[in-house]
Amino acid sequence: MTAETSASSGAPSTGLGPWMRYRRQYSRLSPPVQMIGLQLWLPLVFVVAFCLCYINAFHQPSPKDIKVAVVGTGPAAATLADRLEGTSNGMLSVSAVGSVDDVRGDVRDGDLAAAFTPGSANQPARLLVASGAQFQLAEVVQQTFAPVAAAEGTTLAVDDLAALPKHDSYGTSGFYIALVWTIAGYMVGMFIGMMGQTLRHRVRLGLIVGAGFVFSLLGTLFAGPVVGAVHGHFLSLWLLGWLTTISVGLVVNGLSYFIGRFVTGAALILFVFLNIPSSGGAFPAAFVPEPFKWLHPYVFGTGVLDVLRDVVYGVGPGTGRGATIIGVYAAIGLVLTVVGKPFFDRRNRLRAERGKPVSMMLAAQGAAMAARQAEQAEAAADTRPHHVTTSGAPTSEGPGRDDDSRGNGNGNGNGNSNGGGSRGEGLRDNEFADEEAESDAAAVSGAAAGSGSA
Q: Most buried residue, 48, 190, 245, 300, by most Cβ within 10 Å?
């Protein structure tokens, strides 16, 4: 008999390691309490990640290294560029260009936030922006260059290459649409990964593609025709949303083979806590601190927003860069899926061959099932008809031999009922031994294989 079996059967637990002693004590808790306790890591991750990512990134937006250009030739333009950069305390990165035509494409693509053309007493200064690329950047550069124009004794005229429409005056609709698609894909992949470990690849991929089709359609339909946050481009946005949900679902599905039920936390960190501050959707990348600014070219949301802004407003670097980012994530998801399934099967096989105990979550699930079965058996026993006899006299149901038989049956039934009742009470009183929990868990381990190994 192994040390673990001895400990779980009531024998001294000498030889048990600290982890197995902890598991033994933990298994004595009520099964619902066990399962709740084993999932409390998720709110812990949420609290810590929310503070380190959202609050850290957004509590004090500080624009830095915003790229702008001063239009002009000769020493005057170069001197103005140097002066603006030197007095901006790191907010601006200023260059000098020969003409507006030289930088019009850069402003539209987002490589430059603005281009400033100095004015004179008889001619207003001009500022070229593209608010559809990033509303906050356009606002900041307008506030920055208005005093510069006033110092020249003139006013500032703004030329917006991609003005935002009235129904999306702050330019945030695209960001939230992309977020809807991303979260839908993450949740689909998460549930398939947690509950569908035994499914074949084609079934899991079919679910991801089919669910992505429906949820991207609903998200695009509600954001566009129903709410009116976006006008037009319905088919293009639906296709983008479908690719978004599929790509995210593939990554989360692939990760689930390696980390089991903990895929929820990994997906949250990857597609929510790191993705949102770094994507440039809520605030421009120039407004957030490191490492979010460094992550901006690599996070999934950057690719989705690049394509979306090009489709809706005709600004940004174009669909090429965004499509590449989305495609890379989808390819990573496919690789994780192809490699993960053999890894998952091999890990489970080795675990069984080495006689390792089932995971704590499976043990808790098995104990919960045993508790429910005991309660059902007790309830069924309570609903059975009772035969009443008086003074040991035979009843009208049959002769004395049958009474004896029924007496033995009642005696055994009482014994069993008491035993079952005390076991049910024990279960309700949280008295679970390890061998009970793990044997019950083993009975359901095949059905619950997707719960992971911890």
A: 245
